[in-house]
What we know:
The protein is mainly α and 282 residues long.
Amino acid sequence: MLLVGLSVQLACVWEATARKPGNVHRYRDFEDASYLEFVLSAAAIAPVLDGAVERPVGQTILEGVRATRQVARTNTNLGIVLLLSPLATVPSNEPLRDRLLGVLERLDVEDACAAYEAIRLANPGGLGRVSEQDVHDEPTQGLREVMALAADRDLIARQYINGFEQVFDEGVPALRHALDQGASLEKSIIACQLNLMARHADSLILRKCGPQEAQEASRRAQQLLDAGGQTSRDGWQMLASFDAWLCEAGHTRNPGTTADLIAACLFVGLREGVLSPLHPFQ
Length: 282
């Protein structure tokens, strides 16, 4: 079994490298975030997550964001750190999904305080204010409780409540299915993205562009799946069109939350032996 830190770094590099529609990848930078910054961010958080079992989840989240701020100009991985911190807390010799529930149930107010500080430090795009347990204030409830307040509008928060259902029951099976069909790792990652986007409005698009645009992104992802995804000529042409649409208007339709979930799926895939570092990427 790979070391936790190596699995974290590999999952994040794979996610950033794959040419997913609408995201930064090895052939495309954004004005405020480059591919290299995502790769450096992966390297920065790997040693932090490698020691997650030895510290509270909230502290791991905060240390991960602090490490990232040393190598990236803007928020490159807050969502990834929020997702991977509880996953990495489960010891490698224990069943991941079963023990994860215990990790989530033990989250307390101190975890919430540290996570809030991390979120303020990362300063993610599209972050507004809410009437209860706002991130700009100090929380008075445990981290899982405050995540519950955002679960209806944020997919990452929802994982804290449903035990990472979208990761274990949707994303990882989509990866496995594509790999079983003979797809490369990159194509499997794109298939995972399309499956998640078709099922769930991307939270970052929702925050930046509103529900109509987020639902349109989901509709187009489903249309791609109905056309055979990347397995047909029409599918590849539609994928390019989808990518162009997502990148319009200053990449405000960037499906960043889905990308964060993919990184978690890749980590779980490595942890559970679904994925191998030796699998052909392209």
